[in-house]
Design goal:
Blueprint lengths: L8 H10 L33 E7 L10 E2 L9 E2 L10 E5 L11 E3 L19 E5 L3 E10 L7 E3 L11 H12 L10 H8 L3 E4 L7 E4 L21 E3 L5 E9 L5 E5 L5 H8 L17 E9 L2 E10 L7 H8 L7 E7 L5 H15 L5 E7 L6 H14 L5 E3 L8 H35 L6
Parallel strand pairs: 1-5, 4-6, 13-15, 13-16, 16-17, 17-18
Antiparallel strand pairs: 1-12, 2-3, 4-10, 7-9, 7-12, 8-11, 14-15
Length: 453
Amino acid sequence: MSMRVTVCRACINRLSSAVQRRLFTVSSINTFPIKDVAPEPPGRTKFSGYSSAIVTVKSGNGGNGCIAFELSRTVPGRGIPSGGNGGRGGDVYIIAHGTGDLRGIPPTLAADTGGHGEGSSIHGRKGKDVVLQVPLGTVVYEMTRKPRVEREDNFVHGPMWEEENGEDWQIADLLKRRATGMQRKKPAKEFHEIEEEEKSVYMDFNKWTGEPVLLLRGGKGGLGNINFQTHDIKMPRFGTKGESGTEMNILLELKLMADVALVGLPNAGKSTLLSRISRANPKVGHYAFTTVSPQLGTVILRDGEHERSRLVVADLPGLSFRDEMAESVLKHVRRVKVVAYIIDLSSETCWEDYLFLKRHVDLRIGLHLRELIVCNKADLPGTEERMRDLRAKMEDSKRKILIPICAKDGHGLDKVIEILERQVEDARKEERKAEEEKLARQELDLIGYEPLH
């Protein structure tokens, strides 16, 4: 006869709150997503681009070994050991594919723990692996690393007999034999092996990996008592615990895979230029700081029906007077090959604006980059004299690539695209040549030959 018990809602809530839930530990640093500071007016002080994130990744712990015995008619005594080994913990992998930002990256990612061993010599299953998916252009830095579990004892103890007084003489005998017996000496580690263990994780996913890359290895499984049967110990009542997994805090930074970066002051016409030379649809307005996050556009160049080349152009938020804001904007385009400075001819300080932009680009992206100076709003009255003064100063500084355009009406854009294509192709040829030389040097290092110069 079954009896039905009715429980009120208050009792259910009280019972559910008393149950300890299994939660992952979140990093003590800022929770995801992290929004960088960006150049915006006082009313809007947050940068809306998801360009960095801190993620806590955890590999799985190894399963414990089992202590079990099986009765046998042929073997006298209380039974033979039959405890299986624990399974290995799950691994953590990372893979880069596609484009986008770090908006959907989880703050915590943990692999499964390996299964414990069982009787009848049944070994535990391996923990399930996890994969962290990031967009192309992501750079991974290691911040902190520690074991998931701190253990004082690595053995799994069985029940004690009354005459043993709580002392496990089997484990004490095993440790004594390990300390006094002959041990196999491990060969000394090579210098490159020590360096590999000491250095922190750094990964740059500037190209498609094709398959996941191992980030953290799971802990090894423990040994069951079937592994400790000796001539002196017929019934080992102990096993070993699984190795602890690793918990690591990593910093993800997104660097856009762009060929050209449009750099300029607020309301200089960068978004308008991007919308005219590509199929991108950025937000365009007559007020400053319309663009609050990087926008990408692809310029496809064709010879008739065939595609000749394509360029990826990045439209960045306008730079302002604060250095930390400029850092948060320019860090996205540290891979670019060409920097296009967008100068507003309606401003009375065109030359000073260029020097301001040039100083920030040289400091945060790099020196000796190919550059193109695009003077926008050349259709406005009174800009001819400013254009002549700016051209004279450019010739004095040996910078003669100066193009006046009107992005709103589309005047002069063909010349801009032609020069950008030539500069990007030259940069790509230099990169291919440098890569070939690097591979040739690696091949010579492998065979131990150094060419004579």
